[in-house]
Design brief:
Structural class: mainly alpha
Order of helices and strands: HHHEEHHHH
Distance between the termini: 66 Å
Strand content: under 5%
Shape: elongated
Largest sheet: 2 strands, antiparallel
Radius of gyration: 25 Å
């Protein structure tokens, strides 16, 4: 009687063919589950849509940080005229046209940063950002995830539309995070 050969159930990664390595790596990557965090330092304003997504644990730390920074910059973009996003103030043109100095409007660095981010977005992303900012300013429930999912992704099922709405907001926040360099 011959002794049975020991069988190797698992091969070393280095012993696998290139295609098998790629397949195992891709499989492992797609198994990584998104783990949303709720960092209190980046908590969005209560009763807003972003707060609802944050509270459900659907935002990454990077997305939370991007929204927090964007909203902070948005509020800092207010000028002497109060709670408007354009900042106009007392800035004069320093030309040598005699004693008369022509007042000119100016924008601060925060306003310019917000403008740069908005200009980098697509038309659809910009429209969603405007809705989220409006929701942030008013803190009302007039914007729904289901409507975002229906309008932007075409899902008519309530649950699918809600998930699509969350994904659209997440993608927008990722784009903002990219612009900030997070």
């Amino acid at each position: 009687m011959s002794k049975p050969k020991p069988q190797t159930v698992l091969k070393e990664f280095s012993q696998l063919k290139t295609e098998e390595r790629i397949e195992l790596t891709a499989f492992a990557v797609f198994q990584v589950v998104h783990r949303g965090e709720r960092e209190r330092a980046f908590q969005p304003r209560a009763k807003t849509l972003v707060h609802k997504i944050w509270n459900a644990g659907r935002l990454s730390l990077r997305q939370q940080r991007a929204w927090f920074k964007f909203v902070d910059d948005f509020h800092k973009a207010e000028g002497k005229s109060g709670s408007v996003s354009a900042s106009y103030g007392d800035y004069t043109d320093k030309s040598d046209d005699g004693d008369f100095k022509v007042p000119t409007a100016y924008t601060n660095a925060y306003y310019q940063k917000i403008s740069r981010i908005c200009n980098a977005l697509s038309r659809r992303e910009y429209a969603l950002l405007k809705d989220l900012v409006q929701n942030e300013l008013k803190a009302t429930d007039n914007i729904k995830l289901e409507i975002i999912g229906l309008m932007r992704s075409g899902y008519q099922d309530k649950n699918s539309a809600r998930v699509a709405g969350v994904v659209n907001v997440q993608l927008l926040l990722d784009r903002i995070a990219d612009e900030y360099g997070f």
